[in-house]
Amino acid sequence: ETDFKPDRPADRGGEVPEWRLGESVFKGKRILLAEDNELNQEIAVTILEEAGFVVDVADDGTKAVEKLETSLPGTYDVILMDIQMPVMDGRQAAKAIRELDDPVLSRIPIIALSANAFEIDRRMSLKFGMNEHLTKPIDIPLLLETIARTVSLNV
After folding, report:
1. Which end of the chain is more exposed for a tag (fewer CB within 10 A), N or C?
2. Which residues pair with 112 in a beta bridge?
3. Residue in 24, 56, 47, 4 with CA at minimum distance from that of residue 148
4. CA 115 – CA 84 distance, rounded (Å)
5. What is the pTM of this model?
6. What's the sign of the alpha-carbon dihedral 102, 106, 108, 113?
7. Which has the closest alpha carbon to 31: 51, 48, 17?
8. What Rg, from alpha-carbon coordinates, does the chain have?
9. Are strands 78-82 and 54-58 parallel, antiparallel or unpaired?
10. Helix 119-127 and helix 90-98, axial crossing angle in degrees, nearest 10
11. What are 24-37's pLDDT values in tens digits?
12. Angle 128-70-86 from CA coordinates, rounded to 5°
């Protein structure tokens, strides 16, 4: 089973999201996906690449921090961070990213992806430095809207 729900326009009043029409506003934008579940990785990468993103995957929080820390500022536009991962969880990874010396890297937008839907979970994600908190299963149109809003794209 996956944590990503398919795009169902009927659930959104029948309207077709703008990123499904013609040239994608996400074309060439780079995402660092921190997700330990292989099936979720594959599905997320497929969906994000279809929307126009270039996706780099990290299997845990430590690898996500390392990939960001060793990248040039501007390499990634946003991080999608699973909360429950081995080695270093998503919240600890977000905290480590916010503590990086490079001001550009330390301010990258981070969107939490969590199975926990309680308000306390959302507040904890924000407390650890994440910009947004989305619950699993992931609603794809909402994810894309949140990415667009978080990285200030005109969608």
Report:
1. N
2. 81, 133
3. 24
4. 8
5. 0.85
6. positive
7. 48
8. 15
9. unpaired
10. 30
11. 789 999 999 999 99
12. 50
Given pLDDT bands bounded at 50, 70 and 90, which one contains residue 151? confident
**H or E segment at 124?**
helix 119-127
Q: 20-27 long-range contacts, Cβ below 8 Å, gap at least 24?
A: 24/51, 24/52, 25/52, 25/148, 25/153, 25/154, 25/155, 26/51, 26/52, 26/53, 26/144, 26/147, 26/148, 26/153, 27/52
Is residue 149 within 8 Å of 142, Cβ to Cβ? no
Element (H, E) at 33: strand 30-34
- Residue tagged 């992931």 (tokens): 138
pLDDT digits (tens, 9 = 90+) for 87-146: 999 999 999 999 999 999 999 999 999 988 899 999 999 999 999 999 988 899 999 999
Cβ contact 109:78 at 8 Å: yes
Q: 150, 130 in Cβ contact below 8 A?
A: no
CA pair distance 88, 59, nearest whole angstrom: 10
Cis peptide, bond prior to residue 137, ω within 30 of zero: yes
